[in-house]
Amino acid sequence: MARFNPSILRRTLLSGIAALALGSAALTGPALAEDKPDVIRIGSTAPGHLKFILERHSGSLAKEFEKDGIKVEFIAFTNGGSEATTALATGAVEFIYTGNNPALRVAAAGADVKAIGLSSFVKENGSAIIVKADSPIESIADLKGKKVAYLAGTVRHSTFAKALKSVGLSLNDIESLNLAFDASGPALVRGDVDAVVESGDVAAKLVETGQARVILDASSHPEWSAPFLISANGEFVRKYPDLVKRLLKVDIETARWADAHPEDTIKIFVDETKSSEKSVRQTYHDNVFYQDPKITPEALASLKSEEQFMADAKLLKGSVDYDKWIDTSFLDAAYKEVDAEQSN
Predict the structure, then answer these.
(1) Which of 170, 205, 224 is the endpoint of a domain?
(2) Same domain, yes or no, for 98 and 247?
(3) Which pLDDT tens digits describe the chain residue by residue (344 residues)?
(4) Domain boundary residue among 177, 197, 224?
(5) How far apart are CA 235 and CA 229, in angstroms?
(6) Residues 54 and 257: beta-carbon distance below 8 Å
(7) Per-residue exposure over 171-206, b if at least 16 CB sit within 10 Å of its own CB, e if not
(8) Statement to judge: residues 332 and 198 lie in one domain
(9) Does one domain contain both 133 and 84?
(10) What is the pTM of this model?
């Protein structure tokens, strides 16, 4: 699995300077037919969103663009959505699959990014709060004054703030540690932290081995869920609109393939991410995957509600201009082509 390398940023900046030196005049307009990138880089928060995993596994995006001589690279960002959105905003990647919190935060900051579709809209919050198996902590209220590890700027961050609010506490009442699970998990087992907030399928690795137990399964709070996003770099969108549409065609086809092949989908995701199969099946119970990329009115309302919560909890600066941020034109065009092809 590819990992984020800061040198990507340096190469991106150097290539941009070189383009300017050559007098390129097409940076803000649609690309000419012969003008195309050498590579399309697609990122996701690690271990990877479902369609990201399926597309990487099947090679569907690589096959879509190989006729153009365009290479496709998949990058899993291990330090959370903020790392992924920074890469997108700076042009180090062209597309990312992330949770709603990092996507909303970068949009509110005014970055040149576009929300072009949904990564997913699972109607349950997939986070969990776990403690060591023999911990005296029994409830969220018991976390007051304790050390709790989670990645800042992620959906888990927001979920934890909501959980604390539900018992009359806030993030100011606990000691937060900004740690990814490869650090927070061992820290919990050693007793260096009191609790960890993580996605349920990742947290299950410790729970199923008896090293930890769950004090809150956020799936019991569907009102805390909000859609995850597919975001694109704004300059890339303006320069290569046809490539954006073609990527979304593959995304639609991948979502439909998952629904038609539930057992294969679960097996691929479990194998590729080393997640708990039991937890994955709980997330996608009844073999419903919620991968349709369409940004529905319900999804939009949920995003706006999440933004308001983040603002109230001081997890976000600025505000989102939804008319500027969301562009469904590429997805609309992609649906028309996919539906026409599948009806023949």
Answers:
(1) 224
(2) yes
(3) 444 444 444 444 344 434 434 344 444 445 444 589 999 999 999 999 999 999 999 999 999 999 999 999 999 999 989 999 999 999 999 999 999 999 999 999 999 999 999 999 998 778 999 999 999 999 999 999 999 999 988 889 999 999 999 999 999 999 999 999 999 999 999 999 999 999 888 899 999 999 999 999 998 998 898 999 999 999 999 999 999 999 999 999 999 999 999 999 999 999 999 988 988 998 898 899 999 999 999 999 999 999 999 998 888 999 999 999 999 999 999 999 999 998 87
(4) 224
(5) 18
(6) yes
(7) beebeebbbbbeebbebbbeeebbbbbbbbbbbbbb
(8) no
(9) no
(10) 0.80
Specify whether 86 is located in the same domain as 141.
no
SS3 for 230?
Answer: strand
CA 204 to chain CA centroid, nearest Å: 20
Using CA atoms, how far residue 85 sits from 15, 171, 196, 344, in Å, is 20, 23, 23, 39
| Residue 195 belongs to domain spanning | 127-224
Token code pair at residue 223: 């009102």
Count of domains forming the chain: 2
Report the sign of the C-alpha dihedral through residues 189, 80, 16, 73, in that order. positive
**Residue corresponding to tokens 């299950």:** 204
C-alpha distance from residue 225 to each of 144, 178, 296, 303 (Å): 24, 22, 15, 10
Distances (CA, A) of 332 to 242, 336, 337, 340: 12, 6, 9, 12
